[in-house]
Write a structure and sequence with these properties.
By secondary structure, the chain is α+β, with helices and mostly antiparallel strands. The protein is 33% helix and 26% strand.
């Protein structure tokens, strides 16, 4: 609410009262709009270029937020902004009569509807000659100063609606993200996957290596968690005979916030019976390429000072070889934490925050390998200690069939040949619980007995995938921060 002395707010309240005293409803229920701004301009240009002579000018009804008002004596020009763009209206006193006086009670930020024919001004601008106008919403707060280019980051993210009003790029990113999700759905549906929904409140926060958010259900008197992955429930559906499933939804992880991480984010997870991680690699590169072509019209994206080509095929790079190349460390020669820590310290890699062998390898990846993975690629074949849900390679039981997809130095996707041996899976979960007891500060998976019972009923060979919608949108839009592609990112309370 306005604070005492907020004179501009009070002035707008007085204008609101004047509108009502004149019999104007400043907040009507609806408005009959015939054209978006962009469509009205396009239609006028098409009719203007046609060969029809003496054609009547197109009449339109448009609506939007006032972004500019310019008075010129007995005429005024008003710009309206809708979801498609801007359109100018010209309001004349001799056309509108007494209604023209209502302009005195309007401000930047109000919503109006215009009706009338279209024409070109002497400067060549396509304009609506307003025969009627209607107040659709009186704004009691003004738009930010310097409306054309709201730049304060804190304001942009806390009041995203102002960002969407002031910055066309913010609107473009929001639309691109929505189109990205739509294309992914069509792609998966076209390959006979079925979309499903799984619980967000779960009794065991399993299926990923992350710290969960905790809550309590009063009626059940039971502690629950916000899901950290959809994986285990989707694999239960595979056990049940739904051979291709996917889910697009929110995931919640109680982790740090940085350029690539937000505590809640959106993923698409999919599982396909009778497939392995090679099949999933083909799926990922084809999916990302399809999204880029349909959303952007090209497989070439600019990200910072890098030009990235998403055209398949993407190279498959060995994790062990990449770590050796970038750090000089051969992790198979470092089977325990002491040996690996010594080698990492000698290579200048800080190991103070990692206490487990898997955590140290992950640190090597993030510090030495990932920044070099600019062009799209798959990093393949991870140590079993880092991948409790993935199937071991037949030729080396220290390695699992897992890949992560990278581009622009950030992870886009994570996938496995899924572990369907219930005995091995139980052993891996038990090991994760033991590791948690030894290093509680690190992220570990959890033993989910209900999932193990499901797998004990028989799960077919399966290829699984998790792909980040937020990071894919970052890549396609060239944005370096996840906050730019999440409409309402998590922020510290003021």
């Amino acid at each position: 609410m306005p604070q005492p002395g907020d004179e501009l707010f009070q002035v707008r309240l007085e204008k609101l009262d004047r509108l009502r005293s004149k019999g104007i409803d400043p907040y009507p229920r609806n408005y009959e709009r015939t054209h978006l701004a962009k469509d009205a301009l396009t239609q006028f240009e098409a009719e203007e270029s046609s060969e029809a002579e003496n054609a009547d000018p197109a009449h339109v009804s448009v609506a939007g937020r006032i972004t500019a008002m310019r008075g010129m004596g007995r005429a005024s020009f008003v710009d309206l902004l809708d979801g498609s763009g801007k359109i100018q209206g010209m309001l004349r006193r001799n056309t509108l009569g007494d209604a023209y006086e209502l302009l005195d009670d309007l401000d930047i930020g109000d919503w109006l509807g215009f009706k009338g024919p279209m024409f070109r001004t002497r400067t060549g601008q396509i304009t609506v000659e307003v025969r009627e106008f209607e107040v659709l919403s009186k704004a009691l707060r003004g738009l930010p100063e310097k409306f054309h280019g709201l730049t304060d980051t804190e304001t942009r993210f806390r009041q995203r609606y102002l960002d969407l009003i002031a910055n066309p790029e913010a609107r473009d990113i929001a639309i691109m993200r929505s189109r990205t999700v739509s294309v992914i759905r069509r792609f998966m549906d076209g390959r006979d996957y079925i979309e499903v929904e799984t619980p967000m409140l779960v009794p065991v926060a399993a299926g990923g290596m992350a710290h969960p958010f905790e809550t309590h259900h009063n009626a059940l008197n039971q502690d629950l968690f916000l899901r950290i992955a959809t994986e285990l429930y989707l694999k239960k559906l595979i056990v049940g005979g739904l051979e291709r499933v996917y889910e697009i939804g929110r995931i919640f992880r109680n982790e740090g916030i940085d350029l690539n991480h937000n505590p809640e984010f959106t993923t698409m997870e999919s599982y396909e019976s009778f497939a392995d991680y090679n099949d999933v690699m083909n799926l990922v590169e084809e999916l990302v390429h399809t999204v880029a072509m349909e959303v952007r019209g090209t497989a070439i994206v600019e990200y910072g000072d890098q030009t990235i080509d998403l055209t398949p095929p993407w190279p498959r790079l060995s994790l062990v070889e990449q770590i050796r190349l970038r750090s000089g460390i051969n992790i198979p020669d470092c089977p325990d934490t002491e040996t690996l820590a010594t080698e990492m310290q000698a290579a200048g890699v800080d190991v103070s925050a990692a206490t487990s062998w898997a955590g140290m390898v992950d640190k090597l990846l993030s510090d030495r390998v990932e920044p070099h993975l600019i062009q799209p690629c798959f990093l393949v074949d991870y140590p079993v200690a880092m991948s409790p849900l993935a199937k071991k390679k037949p030729e080396d039981d220290r390695i699992v069939e897992r890949f992560e997809a990278f581009a622009a130095g950030m992870e886009l996707a994570n996938a496995f040949t899924e572990l369907n041996d219930p005995v091995d899976q139980r052993s891996r979960f038990e090991d994760q619980e033991n590791q948690r007891a030894q290093a509680p500060g690190e992220e570990w998976d959890r033993l989910d007995e209900d999932f193990l019972v499901a797998v004990e009923h028989g799960m077919p060979p399966t290829g699984g995938l998790g792909i980040g919608i937020d990071r894919l949108t970052m890549l396609l839009s060239g944005q370096p921060s996840i906050r730019e592609v999440v409409l309402f990112p998590q922020l510290r309370s003021t």
